[in-house]
Amino acid sequence: SCTMSFSEAEVQSARGAWEKIYVDAEDNGTAVLVRMFTEHPDTKSYFTHFKGMDSAEEMKQSDQVRGHGKKVFSAINDMVQHLDNSEAFLGIVTPLGKKHATQLKIDPKNFRIICDIILQLMEEKFGGDCKASFEKVTNEICTHLNNIYKEEGW
Predict the structure, then answer these.
(1) Contacts for 38 with CB less than 8 Å, ≥ 6 apart
(2) Average pLDDT, the chain
(3) Is 115 within a domain?
(4) Taking Cα atoms as reference points, which of 96, 78, 85, 84 lies closest to residue 144?
(5) Helix, strand, coil percent content, the chain, rounded in steps of 5
(6) What angle do CA 91, 79, 27 make, to 5 degrees?
(7) Which of 6, 24, 46, 123 is the 20 to 30 A CA-CA neighbour of 134?
(8) What is the DSSP string of 6-26?
(9) In this predicted model, what pLDDT tens digit does every residue of 109-127 receive, in sequence order?
(10) How far apart are CA 50 and CA 29, in angstroms?
(11) Domain harbouring 92, CATH code
């Protein structure tokens, strides 16, 4: 389905929660990726230039890891701005999903991993309410991405 069911209050609290972590997009985006690569080393295989990096410290310093962390956070930020507009939201999620499915061939389970780590980080830094406000957004993102993957024959 293409319609998203966020109440005005849910949109506002999700945006409030996201703003807290997005203020430091590069550092927090990097932290999310480093945690993913450390806890799920198989995810590194998609990033040829991260493959040889084993220490979290080394990853944290890497311009490529930092750049991609920032990119991930920017994409989510664009989605968060359009939670009240399904068409605009899908306009961002769809090409992103297609690219990851067809060109990059990224296993879709990795989106859930990234989203869960973002929620963990929110909870650690800003508490459970912050995490709770954003959970529905991550579910929405992952659901749409999975649908796009299905359409692409995964």
Answers:
(1) 56, 59
(2) 94
(3) yes
(4) 96
(5) 80, 0, 20
(6) 135
(7) 46
(8) --HHHHHHHHHHHHHHHTTHH
(9) 999 999 999 999 999 999 9
(10) 15
(11) 1.10.490.10
The conformation of residue 81, written as its DSSP 8-state character, comes to T
Q: DSSP state, 152? A: T
Phi, psi at residue 103, to the nearest 5°? -85, -50
User: 67 is in which domain, residue-wise?
Assistant: 8-152
How many Å apart are CA 111 and CA 101, to the nearest integer? 11
Number of domains in the chain: 1
pLDDT digits (tens, 9 = 90+) for 49-68: 887 888 999 999 999 999 99
With respect to residue 3, please indicate whether it lies within any of the assigned structural domains: no
Q: Which residues contact 112 (CB under 8 A, 6 or more apart)?
A: 142
Least confident range of 50-54, 129-133, 134-138: 50-54
Q: Is the pLDDT of residue 74 over 70?
A: yes
Judge contact between 133 and 17, C-beta under 8 A: yes
